[in-house]
Amino acid sequence: MKPVSKPEAHEKYQRLIDAAIAAGPVSTAVAHPCDEVSLKGAVEAARLRLIDPTLVGPTARIKEVANQNDIDIAGLRIVDSLHSHDSAAKAVELVRNGEAEALMKGSLHTDELMAAVVAREGGIRTSRRISHCFIMDVPGHPDPLIITDAAVNIAPTLEDKIDIVQNAIDLATALKMPQVRVAILSAMETVNPKVQSSVEAAALSKMAERGQITGATVDGPLALDNAISEEAAATKHITSPVAGRANVLVVPDLEAGNMLAKSLSFLAGADSAGVVLGARVPIILTSRADSLMARLASCAVAALIARFRRDQAASRPV
What we know:
By secondary structure, this protein is an alpha/beta fold. The protein has helices spanning 11-23, 36-47, 59-68, 84-96, 110-118, 158-174, 196-209, 224-228, 230-235, 254-268, 292-315; strands at 26-31, 51-57, 77-80, 102-105, 131-137, 145-148, 181-185, 217-222, 248-250, 271-277, 283-284. It has 2 domains: 1-125 and 280-318, Rossmann fold (3-Layer(aba) Sandwich), CATH 3.40.50; 128-278, Isopropylmalate Dehydrogenase (3-Layer(aba) Sandwich).
């Protein structure tokens, strides 16, 4: 059983939600919201004006779920589909047509949605590697903590990690983190040729130093303790602008990231909002186990990213 989060655990998420509400709702294609959890999450996010949803799924089924669970969907646009695969394809098509600035997972499998996203014909890939970020609200930790990648890239190469790091930096920038400090994690804070993650961490740090990765201070390899604890960093005499103060943690592989995120959730009472980056629009990935606050925070994060991208596009010279 997931421990009950302390009230202060939600303060960081509430700040994100408040910022997104102030920025205004973002048009969002919700793929297959055909159960109570996914439909209620989308409707509540719409009620708070985080998103302006288009519900994509079998119309009769969506209405049945709404009626059975007393969910008010009056006034919300519905795009009819035949089944979950069709829902994913039509939701992605809305993005391609410029009718949605964000994509949200409903009650279909993540693989179904992502297959439509990365499809060679009709997909919404970009030149960037697609990656996932958890935005963790950890009780007792002063700031939101971004962890990447714990859900999409199983065993990323160094080349993959360049985009994974840059996606996370762009996310932190969109969330208006005043200083983005990225720790490239390994089992140690020294470079060991026998530990590939430590070698790649050093390479990524040097890339950032040379301007190949931009927008943040990047350092690694760092072990988890000296990445987030100033006391641990001081004990090991690590002099770094990131050590002890990291707000973005880049893990070596999906297994390490999954274990880290779930440890924070189940042992520290953290909530985890999730978003996929690297596609044309941010993709809101939620789990049936997510709390309503985590679902709303995921919507808020995607809305802030979409708004940030819109502002960037508007500021570019014609």
